[in-house]
Amino acid sequence: MAERLADSESRISSYGDWLEVCRRIRRELTQVDDETPERYPNRMIAYLSDQLGDTGAVAVDVGQHMVWSYQSFHNKQDQKILFSGGHGAMGYALPAAIGAHYATGKPVACICGDGAFQMNIQELQWVKRENIPVKIVVMNNEALGMIRHLQRDYFDCVYADTSDGSGFSSCDFSDVAKAYGIRAKRIQGEDVEKVSGEFLGQNGPELLEIMLENGTYAYPKTCLGEPIHNQQPYIPKQIFDELMEI
Ligand SMILES: Cc1ncc(C[n+]2csc(CCOP(=O)(O)OP(=O)(O)O)c2C)c(N)n1
Description:
single chain; six-stranded parallel β-sheet
């Protein structure tokens, strides 16, 4: 590798140089990410990954919450993260978490959006009846957030069938879970850091519903007509030019 780099005309002439370039890109882009206020759900996921540290597997559904999770969930050694991958089937996470419990014999977690969770919500009955220790986190932005984001950017903010009041609605998931006899709590997003062992760390199933703003976004994001290395939110032009010159 180092020889190949040294042979090329690039200013990167050694493996050490290459690593330094990678570190610099990570540093600059992480700073931009950290300064993007719309990425507040990523910070929640990072916090929750510690609270869910004892689970054997975390199944994640499909939508913005999936992007936030694979960007910011810090999984522990031997803790499996399950995604439906390219298949992208909403409704995947709760059944996957149940299966993961049988496979690992450990408590498991599941992270869902309010749209995806409604696809297989009836599985709460199985969870309750079999007393499966699944820690369910529903990130409720009262919207099909991922599609809503596309509608904002490419369809002149015509939020057809994706938001409350325009063809989509959800419910109080903590009430639904309680109706099934499952311990549940609904909190506002700003209170997420108050969640600790006394919730999500108990025996048996639990559901935590986190209320988010209706307009949530997953960043960074590729944009139609733009090269893949120039994503929103755009980084300062000077940094972009410098990184492209390396
Ligand atoms: C079964 C199925 N129907 C539709 C889609 C298209 N789709 C992808 S993400 C998404 C919205 C997901 O909404 P939600 O679960 O509330 O998650 P959020 O994006 O708000 O985090 C939709 C409709 C899909 N992936 N799977």
